Amino acid sequence: MNEIVKIHIIDYGMGNLRSIQKGLERVGATAILTSDQDELASASAIVLPGVGAFGDAMKNLETTGLIDIMAEKVAGGTPFLGICLGLQLLFEESTEGGTHQGLGLLPGRVDKFPSSLGVKIPHMGWNELVFKEPDHFLLNGIETGTYVYFVHSYHAHATDTCTVATAHYGYEFPAIVRNEQGNLVATQFHPEKSSRKGLHMLSNFLKFTQKCIQ
Questions:
Q1: Going from the N-terminus, what domains does the chain have, and what CATH number goes with each?
Q2: pLDDT tens-digit profile of 159-188?
Q3: Which residues form the catalytic set?
Q4: What is the pTM of this model?
């Protein structure tokens, strides 16, 4: 049986945080919503979720005073999971509603799917994953071609070295990314809404966290 692990979910007013909290609880974690600086500074693992506009999200994060703490925790090796908008915020900038600076924890930019692709925007629904790094811990027990649930109009341009998996919607885009250090991983899709396979990925993140804190 898994030892109970506390995973802190950053509450910055963007999206339905209860769904990811419930998903983590289902796989055996104690999931805590927080916007408290001291609480986050002592966290064993962090989740940055989000739904909404990039610029508003960065303003909210600045208001909480958590940006520097997140950067310090990632640099120090704390397990970190970004989800949907929480993936996009990790990059250097976004062109959503103008140009906005991101957290800069990953190299690259976030852009909208171009209308010239001839696909409906937002990209909403189930799509399959193509693995670029099949031995990544998040994909343990997951098969390439697994379908997961997306809701987004913007996506990241990531380097090959930090792309774990892609999906195709008009063209190929990053669906899972990571940092070089290996403790930060992020999904453009919603694992908490991706049925059994998505929950399995959350369980893999929990197991990774347990290894890190032993």
A1: 6-104+111-213 (3.40.50.880)
A2: 999 999 999 999 999 999 999 999 999 999
A3: 84, 190, 192
A4: 0.96
